[in-house]
Amino acid sequence: MADDLGHRGARHAVVIGGSIAGLLAARVLAEHAEKVTVVERDRLPEGPEARSGVPQGRHLHVLIEGGQRALDELLPGFMDELRGLGAPKVAMPTDMVQWQSGQWFTRLPASAHFYSGPRPQLEWLVRQRVLADPRVELVENTETVGLTGTAARVTGVRLRERGAGGGRESRTLAADLVVDASGRSTKAADWLAAIGAEAPHEETLDTGLAYASRVYRATDAVPVTDAQGYYIVPGPEQPYGGVIVPLGDGHHIVTFSGLRGDEPPTEEGAFEEYAKRLPHPVLSEWVTGAEPVTPVHGFRQTANVRRRYDRPGRRPAGFLATGDALCAFNPIYGQGMAVAALSAVALRRALADTRRVPTTRRVQRALFDASRQAWDISAGADRKMPGATGDAARSKPFDEVTGWYLARIQERAAGDPVVGVPFRAVLVLTAPLTSLFAPSLVRAALFSPVPETPAGPPLRLDS
Fold first, then answer.
1. How far apart are CA 103 and CA 101, in angstroms?
2. Other CB atoms closer than 10 Å to residue 102's CB: what's the count?
3. How many C-beta atoms surround the C-beta of residue 43 within 10 A?
4. d(C-alpha 59, C-alpha 50), whole Å
5. Cα–Cα nearest to 85, from 130, 137, 22, 128
6. What are the φ/ψ torsions at residue 137 (nearest 5 degrees)?
7. Which residues, 6 or more positions from 90, have their beta carbon under 8 angstroms from its beta carbon?
8. What is the largest CA-CA distance in the chain?
9. 66-78 as b/e: b if 16+ CB within 10 A
10. Coil/strand/helix, residue 234
C-alpha cells in the first residue's frame, strides 16, 4: 500500500465518510496524494447545522485538550477560529460543579479545559478548512456499497447515489488507498468478505447506557452559581448521570443518562421528572427554572466497539479504518472528537516516517495505538457497571489490582491537586496512563488520607 503513498505519492486516495475523522484523514492524505476524494452519504448543510448522518449530533459534545492540540497541529489556528465562533471554554475543575462516587469536587485552580460548543459548529469549521484544499474533493449524497480488488489489494470503491435504490447500478471509483471513516455502523466486514478478505474481530462492551438531551436557556430562576456547568458522574453504585454545560449565546445543553431498562425518556415532562433520580436535586432545580428551547432527543447506541485490524488476518493492502469505524466509545466520556484528531496526527506521522516503509499493517497499528488510551478509559469504567455485556466486559486478574489503585487515585483527585492535575491530564488525553504510576502519585494513593471536599454542591468558588 502505502509504500507508494508514504514515499512517492499515490495518485488517488478515497475516504469513506465526511465526518470529523474522515475530513481530518483527508487533510493528512492530501499531503501525499495527488487527489483525495471524500465520499459522504449525506447532502451536507452549508452552515453549522445538524445532519442525519451524525445521529448523536444534537447531543452533548466536548472537545478535550488532547483533541484541541491535535486540531491545531493539523489545521494551524483552528482553535482561535473556534473561539471566534463563540465556543465556550470551560476550565476543569474550576468551572464545574461535579459529583462522583459520593464526593463533590473542590473547585481547585484549573489544570485542563474543554470546549462545549455545538458539534455541528466544530464539524462545519473542520469541513471549511479541509475542503479549502484543492486536492480534496467532496462527493455528497453517495453511499459506498463495496470495495473493488482482491484479498491481496484494494483497488477502489463501488458507489451508488443515495435514493437510487436497486434500480441504479453502482459505479466504480479507482483508488490507490481507501480509508474507512464511515462510523460505528460501518459495513466494512461485508465489503471485505465480498472480495475474499477477512473481517476483523470485534471487541464489544455494552452497559446498555442511554441518554437524552435538550437545549435550555438559563433564566433568573436557575440556581445562582459562578460555575459554568454541572456534572453528576454515574458509577456502579449510582447509575444515573447528568450534565449541564454552556453552548454559547446563553444556551445550555442538558443530558441525563441511565442504564438498560431505565433509560431517560424523551417526553417533555418525563424528562424533567427523570432528573429527580440523581443523587442531588441541584440539576433538577436548574432544569425546572430554565426555559426549554428544543425538543428532547434520545440516543441509545453507546456500546464500546473495537475492530482489531491490528491483528493478523487475510486483509488487503490499501485499506485502512479510522475513527468510529475502527474504535467507537461510549459517547458519555466525551472522547470521540479528540480521538478522531489524534488518529489523524498518528496517520500523518506514520506516513511521514522515513525510517520505516509505511505498510498497511504498520499504519493501521499506528491508528489503533492512537485510540488505545481512550478505549482503556471508557472500557475500564464501563466494565464496572452493572449489567455490562460483551467479550470485553470480562475482567482479567490484574484488573482488580489496577482498579483498586485507580479508585484510590480518583477519590483523592476530587480535592488534592497533586493527584488531580495528572489525573485530569490522563482523562483529557494529554498524558499517558502510565503517568498515574509516578512515585509521587503512588505515595499519595497508598499513604495520604482522602482530602476533605465540599459537603454540598460548591456553587461558589469561595464555598
1. 6
2. 12
3. 12
4. 10
5. 128
6. -115, 140
7. 62, 96, 113, 114, 115, 116, 228, 229, 245, 246
8. 70
9. bbbbbbeebbeeb
10. coil
pLDDT one digit per residue (tens) for the chain, 463 residues: 344 444 445 699 999 999 999 999 999 999 999 999 999 999 998 888 887 777 677 789 999 999 999 999 999 999 999 999 999 999 999 999 999 999 999 999 999 999 999 999 999 999 999 999 999 999 999 999 999 999 999 999 999 998 755 557 889 999 999 999 999 999 999 999 999 999 999 999 999 999 999 999 999 999 999 999 999 999 999 999 999 999 999 999 999 999 999 999 999 899 999 999 999 999 999 999 999 999 999 999 899 999 999 999 999 999 999 999 999 999 989 999 999 999 999 999 999 998 888 999 999 999 999 999 999 999 999 999 999 999 999 888 778 889 899 999 999 999 999 999 999 999 999 999 999 999 999 999 999 999 999 999 999 998 6
Q: Which residues pair with 387 in a beta bridge?
A: none
Phi-psi region of 261 (alpha: psi -120 to 50; beta: other; left: phi over 0): left
For residue 357, the one-letter residue type is V
Report CA torsion sign: 266, 270, 276, 281. positive
Q: Which amino acid is at 155?
A: T
Say which DSSP state 317 is in: B
Give the residue among 230, 280, 283, 236 at the shortest CA–CA distance from 259: 236
Q: How far apart are CA 14 and CA 1, in angstroms?
A: 13
Give residue 322's Cα distance to chain centre. 12
**Long-range Cβ contacts of 126-131 (<8 Å, 24+ apart):** 126/20, 126/23, 126/24, 126/71, 126/75, 126/78, 127/18, 127/23, 127/44, 129/27, 129/75, 129/78, 129/81, 130/23, 130/24, 130/26, 130/27, 130/75, 131/23
| Strand ranges of the sheet holding 177-180, from the earlier edge strand across to the other edge | 136-139, 35-39, 12-16, 177-180, 319-321
Q: Which residue has the cell 459520593?
A: 102
**Grid coordinates in use for 195?**
472480495
